[in-house]
Amino acid sequence: MIIGIGIDLCRITRIEEIIDRFGDSFLERVFSKEERDYADQFNFKLRAAAYAKRWAAKEACAKALGTGFGKHVSFQDIVVLRNQAGAPSLKLTGGALAVLKEKTQNNAQAKAFLSLTDDPPFAMAQVILENI
């Protein structure tokens, strides 16, 4: 059963501008060390696209959870990782994980499906949360 679906579109240049303006303070507040290590291996344009996709994924996941960001879920609670094949995946911790557990039925396990894409000037993410 589907728990939630979220989608987000992000303008890559918006993330470039935020990085230019706030630098590491923004990156450290929003992205995990793993996410920063991944994105920082690229040149500036590809780096901004990598961050924009991860921003969109966090937003899409918060929408799928039905919470947005704030009191219960923070940016750091949602981490975008890559599996051995390079496909993106989500790791939920803290408030995001607590909300997901509340939404699962009969103590079922939950699975998160994540799709990322970019076609400058935009990056997009879709998240589907499902009881399994």
In CATH, what is the class?
Alpha Beta
Q: What average pLDDT do the residues reach?
A: 95
CATH topology: Ribosomal Protein L22, Chain A
General shape = globular
The run of helices and strands is EHHHHEEHEE
Rg from Cα: 14 Å
Helix content, binned percent: 40-55%
**CATH homology superfamily name:** 4'-phosphopantetheinyl transferase domain
CATH architecture: Alpha-Beta Complex
Number of strands: 5
Distance between the termini: 7 Å
Low-pLDDT stretches are none
Structural class: alpha+beta
Give the count of structural domains. 1
Q: Main sheet, how many strands, which sense, barrel?
A: 3 strands, antiparallel
Residues in β-strands, percent: 25-35%
Give the strand order, joined by hyphens, for the main sheet. Answer: 1-5-4
Structure description:
With 132 residues, this protein is α+β, with helices and mostly antiparallel strands. The chain has a single domain (2-131), classed as 4'-phosphopantetheinyl transferase domain (Ribosomal Protein L22, Chain A, Alpha-Beta Complex). The protein has 5 helices and 5 strands. Strand 2 and strand 3 (88-92) form a beta hairpin. Helix 1 (12-22) packs across helix 4. The mean pLDDT is 95.
Brief overview:
The chain has 132 residues and is an alpha+beta fold. 43% of the residues lie in helices and 30% in strands.
